[in-house]
Amino acid sequence: MGSYAIAIEDVRRAAATIAPHVLRTPLVPAPRLSELTGATVFVKHENMHPTGAFKERGAVNKLASLTDDERRRGVVAMSAGNHAQAVAYHAGRFGIPATIVMPAATPLVKVESTRAYGATVILHGESLSDAADRAGSLAGERELVLVHPYDDPLVMAGQGTVALEMLEEPDLERLVVPIGGGGLVSGIAVAAKALKPSVEIVGVEASLYPSFHNAIRGEDRPIGGPTLAEGIAVKTVGTLTLPIVRDLVSEIVLVEEALIERAVAAFATLQHSMAEGAGAAGLAAMLARPDLFKGRRVGLVLCGGNIDARLLASVMVRELERDDRIASFRITSHDRPGVLGRVASRLGELGANILEVSHGRLFLDVPAKGVTIDVTVETRGAGHTAEILAGLARDGLDPHRINPRGLSETAY
Questions:
Q1: Does position 367 have pLDDT exceeding 60, yes or no?
Q2: Are 44 and 65 spatial neighbours (Cβ–Cβ below 8 Å)?
Q3: pLDDT, mean over the chain
Q4: pTM for this one?
Q5: What confidence score (pLDDT) does residue 381 get?
Q6: Where are the domains of the chain?
Q7: Quick check: do 8-53+155-318 and 324-411 share a fold?
Q8: 62-72 pLDDT, tens per residue?
Q9: N- to C-terminal Cα distance for the chain?
Q10: 56-146: CATH, from 3.40.50.1100, 3.30.70.1230, 3.90.1200.10, 1.10.3210.10
């Protein structure tokens, strides 16, 4: 290995420093996820920290290094959420004033949690880069210590303690790690490769934010856009983390938004665990590239669980739609008394649970004496949905499927 910002000795020192302050999270077998992916999966539950993510490790290691004078002046950090909460929480424990700069679009749950830990929150800019510029200005103006979310040796070493704990499971062959700015993956890579050179590190980026992919491959894929994985939505790679990722990470998998959603839902339903988009990115990579993992013993880092309840509900419903367990369709009929009751009774006979009905008479593509009935039902799955639509068609009701992108032209 080359000469990097951190070495295994730094990670071991960090482990000793943070031990009294940070939860040692469990690494547990995940048989349902193993069935889903074809690998033998172990999940590292970094979502179990008090602030819901791994960031506490690096934050504590950095805060513990401050002098008395630096503690008195205070710290400033920029973050889309998890680093903010970690710095705010432990700065409060240590009696250190903390100012956190967050992008304006940061999910409300993360903003309010950060404030609740006692930090001063400043919402600034559209991106983490904008927030970083403001945090840097504040550090200079007020003589605050900048606690960088990833490009700091003490932070990187703190995150690397995840690997020390994971590799106590001796047979792991691959570790799957989400990548934002690279602090977590670089810390894990340095520690893991020192302890077990044969282990492979697979990094994961959201397809909308392929920052390390571009930097390492010399590509120029566009970067930006709304992603469920805002915790790894980083446009600029770390100066200290890039050489480590380039040398020690065997592959970077880019994952699309639909697979991130699917992974969030799978963690909730199969692992009974809360995962935010970034936290679920590793599982999304396993779904995107099963060829990399099939038959292997895989350590999956669930790096964070701070997801807004409304967003989680939306993701779960969308996944039901993808699995055809929620289906919508439109029936156009003569406007006669009893039509709606007939449709409802027939759906009950077919075993469908009606979730929503919309009765319309004013559409211009419907005859003056006609009516449209838009129905959303819950079913047992794709086969049952097909049976329901076929049954309605046999009854002469001629349903047209409405998919999430609009009314389908396909009649059943």
A1: no
A2: no
A3: 91
A4: 0.86
A5: 87
A6: 8-53+155-318, 56-146, 324-411
A7: no
A8: 999 999 999 99
A9: 61
A10: 3.40.50.1100
